[in-house]
């Protein structure tokens, strides 16, 4: 019974979203910590694309990797292993080669925190219904 509760598509999607938001928050914290590091480029996390692939795949929370040969082993990977961390485009580079903007980082941090709280509230409400 327990495994069928947590195999729910909505809870799987919430798990991916919370993991992605956690990764995003860690990257934002890293950006803020490196605000005065010469040559540092601000980074960003794109987990929404991977999460959408996982939801479209409907393979019980796993993303199948493409096989280019029949001799390749079958494998699955969790979405958290596939989050895309890249340099943030745009922004103004300072003389020291750093492009971290504290206003942008604080705004992203607040938005990420609100999204995290909203998803945890939805999960909490769903689990209360099951209770």
If you had to describe this structure to a student in words, what would you say it looks like?
The strands form two sheets. This protein has a two-stranded antiparallel sheet. Strands 2-3 form a two-stranded antiparallel ribbon. With 131 residues, it is mainly alpha-helical. The two termini are 13 Å apart. The protein is built from four helices and four strands; from the N terminus they run ααβαβββα. It has helices at residues 2-6, 9-33, 48-57, 102-130, and strands at residues 43-46, 63-64, 76-77, 84-87.
How do the SSEs run, as a string of H and E?
A: HHEHEEEH
Let me know the average pLDDT.
80
| Percent of residues in beta strands | 5-15%
Q: Largest sheet, order of strands side by side?
A: 1-4
Helix content: 40-55%
Shape: flat
| Rg computed from alpha carbons, rounded to a whole number of angstroms | 18 Å
Number of helical regions: 4
Structural class: mainly alpha
Beginning-to-end CA distance, first to last residue: 13 Å
The beta-strand count equals: 4
**Sheet with most strands:** 2 strands, antiparallel
Q: Return residue spans where pLDDT drops below 50 for at least 5 consecutive residues.
A: 75-80
């Amino acid at each position: 019974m327990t495994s069928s509760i947590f195999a729910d598509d909505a809870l799987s999607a919430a798990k991916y979203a919370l993991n992605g938001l956690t990764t995003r928050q860690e990257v934002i914290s890293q950006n803020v910590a490196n605000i005065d590091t010469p040559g540092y480029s601000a980074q960003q996390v794109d987990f929404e694309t991977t999460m959408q692939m996982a939801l479209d795949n409907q393979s019980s929370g796993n993303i199948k990797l493409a096989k280019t040969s029949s001799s390749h082993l079958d494998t699955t990977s969790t979405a958290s292993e596939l989050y895309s961390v890249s340099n943030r485009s745009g922004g103004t580079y300072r003389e020291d080669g750093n492009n971290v903007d504290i206003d942008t980082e604080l705004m992203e941090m607040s938005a990420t925190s609100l999204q995290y709280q909203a998803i945890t509230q939805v999960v909490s409400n769903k689990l209360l219904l099951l209770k």
